[in-house]
């Protein structure tokens, strides 16, 4: 049984914090290097964004430009952009999940 009044070893705690900080930084670099693609429902628009949240391209099918008016096309672009942001959030959460789980167990 562990003594509830025992003073934790500060060197051990600092080493754990250092290790977790390094792991978070490593994962952050991995997330920032990711590239995510997402599409509108009918694939009229494809967006590509990096892990840092910056969009690198938005591709619009030329048929969509002929088929839709500006208002509808802007809604389709927003749909693809929001899908990309959601996909990025899911991928980021998946990368950080092990660290979050480990922190909860400390």
Your description of this structure?
By secondary structure, this protein is α+β, with helices and mostly antiparallel strands. The protein is 61% helix and 16% strand. The protein has three helices and three strands, in the order H-E-E-E-H-H. It has helices spanning 10-33, 62-67, 70-104, and strands at 35-39, 45-50, 55-60. The chain has a three-stranded antiparallel β-sheet. Strand 2 and strand 3 (55-60) form a beta hairpin. Helix 1 (10-33) packs antiparallel against helix 3 (70-104). 8% of the residues are buried.
Can you give keywords for this protein?
alpha+beta, single chain, 3 helices, 3-stranded antiparallel beta sheet, 106 residues
State which percent range the strand residues make up: 15-25%
Taken in chain order, the helices and strands follow as: HEEEHH
Number of discrete helical segments: 3
Separation of termini?
17 Å
**Mean pLDDT across every amino acid position:** 88
> Rg from C-alpha positions?
22 Å
Enumerate the spans where pLDDT stays under 50 for 5 or more consecutive residues. Answer: none
* Oligomeric state of the chains present here: single chain
Which overall shape is indicated by the principal axes computed on the Cα atoms?
rod-shaped
Main sheet makeup = 3 strands, antiparallel
Taking strands numbered 1, 2, ... along the chain, how are they ordered across the largest sheet?
A: 1-2-3
Output the structural class: alpha+beta
Please count the beta strands (DSSP E, at least 2 residues each): 3
């Amino acid at each position: 049984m562990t003594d509830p009044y025992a003073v934790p070893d500060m060197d051990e705690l600092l080493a754990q914090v250092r290790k977790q900080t390094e792991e978070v930084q490593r994962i952050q670099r991995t997330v920032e290097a990711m590239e995510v693609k997402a599409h509108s429902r009918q694939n009229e628009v494809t967006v590509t964004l990096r892990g840092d949240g910056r969009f690198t391209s938005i591709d619009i099918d030329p048929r969509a430009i002929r088929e839709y008016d500006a208002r509808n096309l802007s809604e389709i672009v927003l749909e693809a952009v929001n899908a990309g942001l959601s996909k990025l959030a899911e991928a980021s959460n998946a990368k950080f999940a092990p660290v979050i789980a480990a922190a909860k167990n400390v």
